[in-house]
Amino acid sequence: MKGEVLHKPVLAERLISLLNLSRFAHSKLRGKLIDATFGLGGYERLMTELNLDILGIEIDPKTIKEAEKVVSGFRRSRLSFRIVQGNFRDIKDIAKKENFEEVDAIIFDLGVSSFQLDSPSYGISFRYPESPLDMRLEREISEIKASDLLNTLSESQLTSLFAVVLNENLSKRIARLVTETRKKKSFEKVKDLLELVDKLGLKKGKLHPATKVFLALRMAVNSELENLKSALPDSFSLLKKGGRLSVISFHSGEDKIVKEFFESLRDRGFGNLLTKKPIAPFEDEILANPRSRSARLRVIEKYD
What we know:
CATH architecture of the largest domain: 3-Layer(aba) Sandwich
Number of helices: 13
Oligomer: single chain
Shape: globular
Structural class: alpha/beta
Largest sheet: 7 strands, mixed
Radius of gyration: 20 Å
CATH class of the largest domain: Alpha Beta
């Protein structure tokens, strides 16, 4: 399966170590883990020797279908799975409904999965110019596509949207160009946005000039930062004493939210920061998986 082959979990071994899951390897005790961004179960492939009950939350029904194929290969492992379709902003309600509280560990991997990036229908990747400019991960609920935002938001609203990822001056330039362009032709396909980025004349560096433009738009379409702010306190409340919450972020805006939340827990005496600074991938991991280059891992332990 293409998606399965391409999906590479980021910082996996160090994450598993920091979550202290090895204690469930030779014990009669079973641990409880929530993977709030299950994807194709990439992290769980490295846990097959552990005694764990796993609740996987995945926003996208297409990904769940692929994930179930992957999980079927784990049947002889010590893992047990429940995979639920939902948004991690609702993690507390989902856990309660599944009777899955007082957990040992929770994982958030905030990156879009390779399966989604490599599927043209999502319109997330600029490698598929003819794809519809959609970007929704929750299509059954969300009606607003990326093209809708570009075609309807005011110039000031667009500036704010892009400024989450880009500097203020560039965000203003993009917003102005969007409003000028849509007077002549509406945004419908990925190539329409790529053509706009080309007009900006941005220098090519390590990243494609369109990377952050697409990132800002995807984050807005899926309310990613707002969902993260909502999910973090609810997730921490689901941990048993001594349980650990881990977050892998891929953008400074995400990491800032995680950093400030974790530090507030520490300052109020609720948790112990296990990562004083965010953990980044080693060079060999970046070479093997270029998409990991911006990953940052933070972990906090709930005080006994």
